[in-house]
Amino acid sequence: MYNPSAAGGAANTAYGSRLFVYEVEGLRQNEETDKTDYPIRRSGSVFVTVPYSRMNQEMQRITRMGGKIVSIRPATINGVANGNSSSGMVSQTSAEESKPVTQAEEIQAKPKKEKKDVPVNTYRPNAPFVGKCLSNEELVGEGGIGTVRHLTFDLSEGDLRYLEGQSIGIIPEGADKNGKPHKLRLYSIASTRHGDNLDDKTVSLCVRQLEYKHPETGETVYGVCSTYLCHLEPGADVKITGPVGKEMLLPDDPEAKVIMLATGTGIAPFRAYLWRMFEEGEKKLNTDYQFKGFAWLIFGIPTTPNILYKEELEALQEKYPDHFRLTYAISREQKNPEGGRMYIQHRVAEHADELWKFVQDEKTHTYICGLKGMEGGIDEAMTAAAAKDGVDWKAYQKSIKERWHVETY
Predict the structure, then answer these.
(1) Catalytic residues, which ones?
(2) pLDDT of 235-283, one tens digit each?
(3) Assigned CATH class of 257-408
(4) Burial class of residue 212, CB neighbours in 10 A (0-12, 13-18, 19+)
């Protein structure tokens, strides 16, 4: 099984030479601090410059000395951009030498790298692409809750190309109560850029039929577009727009670590990621991308029959145990430590220390997709894990914005 490390091999990589400045408060004078090679003040902030390869060790050392890290920011050395300095020493930067910065500047994320050749809005609502439904299959097993369908559409007559992590819009047939055409709904794509048939001619979606009780009448209400799609017959025309979205794109690095946190149909983009990483046919097509990193999916569902793509996921885990890890949170069958239902946030809390080590690695990208309600529990678990190293999670989370991807609803 893969053994993660917060700084594993960092010193031998390009990012291993990067330097960061920790602003630390509360360092106390004691036998431990007496051993350090820089002066400790009883109050105020101490600024410590740390190479990436020692970030985790320095966090632990600061915690032992009673300090709290209030901010982490990239460093510059004598005006030279971070990462170009040959210095590998841990040194103190005095408050006088450090240019005063605002809290917003201290936690500012590195600019996102521009994504090249990302198709966006090839087809717009006023001129959608009209494809055909090739298949519409049930994903929920017997005894499961609700209905979720895997739909595949033919794109061969158009020019709609997309990347893993993007979405397409669907315009349902019919009109609303005012007689106007229905507005489009966006759905995350569940297939790779090559499609389920690996011929660059299809796109697939994972759609749950929305169903809820009207708060006033108690009448059962069904979602317009989701109901339209779940009952779409093979051969029927379907209006498609897009693609859209750049937030959930995979990194190009085949050695990346990819953490995926999903609930329900939030699995859609992660199915696309995993097929791109591991599916044999995909590997033959993707000569410029051969995944050698590590992927971990934590998947929240209500019952075992609701595990979407269960056979696919478990086959990948069995075939690639050193590169893919699969963890379920089955709310109506498993119990959390307090005896209540096991939701995804409880699984994250259970593995929070390990996840915290992962996110400190610059090769790690974390993706969250599904119900918005899970975000608070995930943040709570990561806050507790980061605090053990004296790190403020919210500030740190902002500093890794380019590696922390969220698409919730």
Answers:
(1) 187-188, 369, 407, 409
(2) 999 999 999 999 999 999 999 999 999 999 999 999 999 999 999 999 9
(3) alpha beta
(4) exposed
